[in-house]
Amino acid sequence: MNQFELLWDYQQADVEVDKVKKDIARSPQRLKLLKLRDNIKEQQNFLKTLESEVIAMLDRIDVLQDAIGIHEDQLKQLQTKVQEQPPANSQQAREYVQETQKIINSLGDFDQETRRIRKDAADRDKKQRDIKRLAVKIKTEFDTIRDEYNMEFEQKSEELRRLQSIVDEKAKAIDKEAMDEYNAVKQHSVPPMAKLVNDRCGGCNMSFPSSVLHAIKSGKKVECETCGRMIIL
Q1: Which end of the chain is more exposed for a tag (fewer CB within 10 A), N or C?
Q2: CA dihedral 201, 204, 207, 208 (to 10 degrees)
Q3: How confident is the model at residue 4 (pLDDT cuts 50, 70, 90)?
Q4: 152 and 94 co-located in one domain
């Protein structure tokens, strides 16, 4: 067998190796695992976001509680002042009323914001519980499919090792230059070799001029100008 024939024989085994590799990569179980893994990561990120938001809300409530305490003290102080220094005229009375109303309005605003934040925090807490329950369900499904996939992967890996050993053995009979050319073509065309079929490329069905056909039939190295494959009789 010449180098072209050896390469063709090598390609038959190489194609089988590639097929098993693709089967492993495209395994429905593997794709399910990847989807579940991404879902788990998404839920984890969402949980972190919710936790950060709840912490920020609790911090804001602390600030509001401090503000409420300060304004309540101000209101008490104002009430004491009014008792100790009653308004001397209607203008001073209006000022007392305005100042009192301003404090009361602020307290009302603080109270409304506190209630809103507590409600939002409770909603987020519920979402956290829901997500955690969902995460447990997803993790259980992930573990089940992972165990099934591991068995499948081990079987495929054993087959891959067997086929790869055949490829490696066939490669020993091929010159380095020929193998380098094969691998270079394989970077853009798979499989990298094609038979001449009815004076056309067996890979892309491109027809060849007579000069190229003569070169192929004389055993020279020829690559299809369309698909780049090496052509063999």
Answers
A1: N
A2: -50
A3: confident
A4: yes
Which domain range does residue 210 map to?
182-232
Residues 119 and 24 in one domain: yes
DSSP structure class, residue 229: P
Q: Are residues 129 and 189 in the same domain?
A: no
3-class SS string, 173-192: CCCHHHHHHHHHHHCCCCCC
Which H/E stretch holds residue 86? none
Predicted structure pTM score: 0.68
| Same domain flag for 104 and 206 | no
Give CA 4 to chain center in angstroms. Answer: 43
Phi then psi for residue 232, to 5 deg, are: -130, 145
Q: How far is CA 104 from CA 70, 85, 99, 100, 113, in A?
A: 12, 20, 9, 6, 14
Tens digits of per-residue pLDDT, 76-96? Answer: 999 999 999 998 899 999 999
